Amino acid sequence: MELVLCISRHPEGVEIPHSRYTFDLLGGVIGRGQDCDWVLPDPRRILSSHHALVGVENRCFFIEDTSTNGVYVNQSSRPLGRNQRHVLCSGDTLRMGEYVLDVVATGKEETRHSDMPAAEPEPEPVAASGLAHGADFGPTDFSPRNRKRRLSRWPRLPRRSPPGTCP
Question: What SMART domains does the annotation carry (predicted)?
């Protein structure tokens, strides 16, 4: 199972060494910090050093906003919100600073929003495991070698769909 993200827009005049990135089941970190799995150059420093976390839960990839300036999903005018997650599907777009990233593939069992039943209204976000927002969510070592330990320490959100299916 893999997640492929492609840059469809980036800051003007910035050379992009890698216009696409493939995440595996260990996920990873996106940001301007040199210790991120996918480093996005950002001379204006709009992106956080560790802007977003990509992870897997219930066989679905998700993006988690770990930034100050937000991760925007699809056409939303509101950011996800710090420590909030969104399950990714092919066709999604992510806006981070001056970057727009397209979700190209989410694995062998490809899921698209058009394939999904109409969603019920989302409940209000609740802090995972009863922790307040801003609580300590685990290690701050974002190096690639620490990915597995980092992901295993993040609190799990309540399930919203049966295991093995994306909402």
Answer: FHA
